[in-house]
User: Fold this.
Amino acid sequence: TRVRSSAASDVYKRQGSSIAARTIAAGDVPPVKNLPPLDAPEMRELRELLEDPAIKKTAHHAKYDVLALRRAGVQLRGVDFDTMLASYVLDPGRRSHGLDVLAFEFLNHTMTTFDELCGKGKSQLSFDAVPVSCARDYACEDADMAMRLRAVFEPQLDVHEMTPLFRNIETPLVEVLTDMEWSGISIDVPWFRSLKERFQRERERVEQEIYAEAGQEFNINSNPQLRVILFEKLQLPVRKRTATGPSTDASVLQELAEAGHVLPQLLLEYRELFKLEGTYLDALPQLLNPADGRLHTSFNQTVASTGRLSSSDPNLQNIPIRRELGRDIRRGFVPRAGWMLLAADYSQIELRLLAHLSHDEAFVQAFTAGGDIHRQTASIIFDVPLDDVTPVMRARAKTINFATIYGQGAHALSRQLKIEHAEAREFIARYFERFQGVRRYLDATIESARELGYVQTIFGRRRYIPELRDRNYNMRAFGERTAQNSPIQGSAADLIKIAMIRIHHQFRTNGLETKMLLQVHDELVFDSPMDELDAVRALVIHEMEHAAELSVPLVVDVGVGRDWLETKIG
Assistant:
């Protein structure tokens, strides 16, 4: 039974005791007789109903139900509609896709919460002690609300032409993610212990450098103390203010560090070490499942407005790869004994999608020609032969390529390239002069979003952007950047989801033991027996590169290794 999040009703607050407790106190309640385990002979008919794919089921957050039943030995099949996914597809930006929130908003019905039913704190009853009549009403309310919401959402999916996205991508992805979460991933615990010692020494070294630079010891994790040191004692310029005083967030520290101030740079280094140490080195060994000794993350399908998946408990999508310490954490993720990890990564997927969506001839031609897209771009922008492109030219072209995707202006580009604002503005103008199709596409996307209120991916996923009509200039600017980026990032998310579904299906069809373990935005990680590696490599590349037919080729890089890092460098 799912714990619901809505606030307790007025009746509950007034009476101050749970529904179950009041029912028991009223008397005439038959003793609670709980059902036998699901694998008991008496439960055969229910088990068969749940496992029959021909009997269609409606659920809310089906992945939760599938995993809960699998732990009880039942393979739930035939899930035909998930109201949480339908809500997400229809409006990915809403604050909650919870059953209670949707029931209240669309059905004007306030659901009973777990606390209302069982109480709170010391007086809380366990669910198996709740009178059957109360448990029945509470549990059946879930099913009732899901069925009623389906009647609301299903026609809306048709009206907005989102049924294919819902049916062909989001719904079949549930089974893929369920299997990934069930498989989990191995970590090298002794390696993490040794890393912990290294990180601790490194953090303590940076701490001493911070104290030396500040001229005193202080609590580095205290923002009020940090403000005093930075802006009163050292008299550094205030870049941004909050309600409580000058801001000490990462963007402020970065700006001060780029201006040549030593202490902000040390603070950034300290914060990264502190975060990595706490989030990964301390937490991951504690999160291993005692039953199989593996780490089981949760993939969230209804969080990111772009359509991307997120990962939590623990978040395995946010391990930095550029710094040595982050790479060392990846080294601790390992395959099963005698197996290998295989990682497949879309190469420059967002730039390829920009070329496809914009139909810019020069950009499309640069990708069609193959080779290094950033060198190709630099050659076009600076109007020099490919062989004459310098490393500096390539680096600048790479920066502006990605700045274009995220709608960055001259100010952000000048900071990234460490050049004057006027030079950055000229650089952007030259870029869009060479790639006029890109400029037209980005402008047209913003205008369309203003008119329709949303943007769409190649596969019809919508993102609503109310900020475009906001009175505040900064909010409107945010809306414009979001309008430019969302079709690109959302299409990339859709592509890898399609690839995941097809790969998962091929593994089953071909009877392969290989498991898909992780999705980290544009990357998939697999655990594969040695004798399947060649077949899996070919299969994964084919399915990822043919997830959709674009005007530019999709390219996938594959690496194999004895740990996650080695798949990148091996």
